[in-house]
Amino acid sequence: MIFLSIAIDLFGDGLMIGTSLTIAPHLGVVLTSGRVVAHIPEGFITNSLRQLKLILFNYLVLINTEVLKR
After folding, report:
1. How far apart are CA 56 and CA 47, in angstroms?
2. What is the Cα–Cα distance from 66 to 31, expressed in whole angstroms?
3. Three-class SS of the chain
4. Residues ≥6 apart with Cβ < 8 Å to 49
5. Quick one: pLDDT at residue 3?
6. What distance in Å separates the CA atoms of residue 49 and residue 1, rounded to the nearest whole number?
7. pTM, full prediction
């Protein structure tokens, strides 16, 4: 669900930057630089959630293999 919301956010950013570049190139550059700074924390969150998902998956596999051994 989080990946879908990020994809929608990036699509909206693309529309905003594309429209601003059509109006004035300088405005597009300003908006692009602002969006790059804004997306840095979003990347950290996405990466953390991906690692957490991998850790949880490995834990569940470990539990299942322990149950099957019994």
Report:
1. 14
2. 53
3. CHHHHHHHHHHHHHHHHHHHHHHCHHHHHHHHHHHHHHHHHHHHHHHHHHHHHHHHHHHHHHHHHHHHHC
4. 2
5. 74
6. 11
7. 0.51
Q: Which residues of the chain have pLDDT under 70?
A: 1-2, 61-70
The answer to whether residues 17 and 32 touch, using CB atoms and an 8 Å cutoff, is: yes
32 Cβ contact list (under 8 Å, min separation 6): 17
For 2, 20, 25, the CA distances from 29, given in Å and listed in that order, are: 27, 9, 6
- Both structure tokens of 51: 């690692």
The reported pLDDT for the residue numbered 70 is 61
